[in-house]
Amino acid sequence: MKPVEILKRLIRLSHELGREDRRLAILGEGNVSADLGDGTFYVKASGSQLATIEATGFTRVNFAPVLEALNHPDQIDEAVRNVLEACRVDQQNKLPSVETFLHAICLKEGGAKWVGHTHPVSVLGILCSQLGAEPFRRHVFPDQIVVCGRHLAVVPYVDPGIRLAVALRRSVRRFQVEHGVAPKVILMVNHGPVVLGQTDREVLNTMLMLDKWASVLLGNYSVGEPRFLDGKNSDRIESRPDEHYRRRAIGKLR
Ligand SMILES: [Zn+2]
């Protein structure tokens, strides 16, 4: 896909994620990125709004300096800003989001081509509670396993920026060792989810299903306890061939 087409799709994905009625992100919250396959990626610029973003709201960034900065997680804010300025392919572009580091990890180590991060009211309703990410470790209905994956990765609260990206990298690596695949969803406690996709559509679908899952859980807790599926049934859904077919079909939905 040509960079201009990727940019067009990133704008569309941003507008979908930023829709006011979906309550996934308001104001400058959230960001998206996509790998261009040539050692660079597009990421939302700092201060842009998902709902209204245009082409100038994105910055093309080199992977190398962003990943290199992760070797020095204790850099002061000024040094981080220098990295964000220097990593731009075109110095005329705006400063990329401070969450550029996190996107670089998802695209390089998480095997994603497209990444979306939001702060949904529903998901934060649980992630910011005393339960944290615990309710998401089990399932309450089959489609969440089909779309979001059998297991989610979790990152404890860390100050956004390089240190958060390092914590997220640790979580992604541990997940890959435990499950043999990359996660589709990473939950950052007291912050929000990151969704990893092979297509722009997959990122949107997964985010919408995660939002529904969280809303259902909130409903369950409001009338008592969720009736969780047992692990065996969840594993079965994950491995059923017809569910694999359904997953591919959902990924192609336009
Ligand atoms: Zn965020």
What does this structure look like?
By secondary structure, the chain is α+β, with helices and mostly antiparallel strands. The protein contains 10 helices and 7 strands. The protein has helices spanning 3-17, 63-69, 77-86, 100-108, 121-127, 142-148, 162-179, 200-222, 231-239, 241-252, and strands at residues 31-35, 40-44, 58-62, 114-117, 153-155, 185-188, 192-197. A 7-stranded mixed β-sheet has the order 3-2-1-4-7-6-5, with helices on both faces. A hairpin with a 4-residue loop joins β1 (31-35) and β2. α1 (3-17) runs parallel beside α8, α2 (63-69) crosses α4 (100-108) and α6 packs antiparallel against α8 (200-222). The longest helix is centred in the C-terminal third of the chain and has 23 residues, at 200-222. The two termini are 17 Å apart. The mean pLDDT is 92. The structure holds zinc ion (ZN). The site of zinc ion has 5 residues, from loops.
